[in-house]
């Protein structure tokens, strides 16, 4: 017998003997590996890098962008005062944010959770390099410190926008006190109401548990858990209001606060009689250009990660801005006979404002239409309507930021429609664990957007009026007539922007 036949018979016999000794070996599968719990998401270096860059870009919007944009629009004797005001507000709010602002905006507020957070993360308690913050994709996170920095820059620029409404006439001390109160009582609650929620993983995991439930008791418990996750959100977020990057939180919020301020302070000396022209449109052009560049961090960064939606927000920030600049330029040209640089710059800012809430929801063609409308509408508000009513909004904060923000917030409810090239309403429960476009009803969404706009106007308008009055009766809002004529550079700061 050949060797290979002997080996085959030997191995076969050994196997048969083993089965006779322990029959279970014939049917026992290989042992499975023990179930390993899903690992916690780890921040991707690309997302982290993009958000670090976005945070720096938004800071660029404030200093030097906003400071130069506003500074060039005032008279020479007030240039330094505007630079000081914007820079000081940014620094003070930066510190307030890490002391308690982040906690008030982005933690659970208990019984007041619809309106504001709590103090569980005051002084950044519990935050370290290992903690993470959710993005808008399931299983994707960024370091919490990065999220804190990004949202900090939004808080830093928003009260700075208000400065333009009453430039050249408000006391520096009064402005600082007002801004400290305003960010605490107006901005942080608005940010909480619009942007605070549990995140996609919390919603997705709860929805998965509900889908996996097999009996009534388990289904009820899972539904209660999902309801609790959805309830842990700000009032406007729960209502379904869409605001990608701050149409309500930043622009309407600051715009109406500035409008109330300019009314309560009154007009500048010589308004309507003397020439109060910008002293340097060169500076304003530099500032506006820096604002446009920085706005890519503002809008595209608001997706909190680097993906296709980030690219959508970026292209929308390009085309809406260009469309609004062109729109204002040609409308003004037709009305006044000459196209102005200031008009084109103002139109660009109006387009940036209008596309902010829609940046990640609208399609590029819809954003172009939005920009065209924003440029024309804000031109009418800053010329015809302003002149007819006669209020002295020094740098058109109301006409550009509030009106542009209202237009953008309402238009988001339309342009989000997939039929118009929009991204659709975000839905994390239909397919648990992934983001899909949910059911969309244009009328219902427009109504929700209108409610968000109305609440922002009331919250900031009434709240700001109370704060202005409080500051006025304690330290006074306005400089003296002598100081206003001399200029705030010398009166408030004892130095000049220019010495020649």
Automatic annotation (TrEMBL):
Domain of life of the source: Bacteria
Segment forming the signal sequence: 1-26
Protein's recorded name: Ammonium transporter
Gene designation per UniProt: amtB
Family stated for the protein in its record: Belongs to the ammonia transporter channel (TC 1.A.11.2) family.
Keywords tagged on the record: Ammonia transport, Membrane, Signal, Transmembrane, Transmembrane helix, Transport
Pfam families, sorted: Ammonium_transp
Species assigned in the record: Methylobacterium oxalidis
Gene Ontology MF: a single term: ammonium channel activity
Compartments where found: Cell membrane; Membrane
Cellular component per GO, a single term: plasma membrane
Chain ranges passing through the membrane: 50-70, 82-105, 145-167, 174-197, 244-265, 277-298, 310-330, 342-362, 368-385, 397-416, 452-471
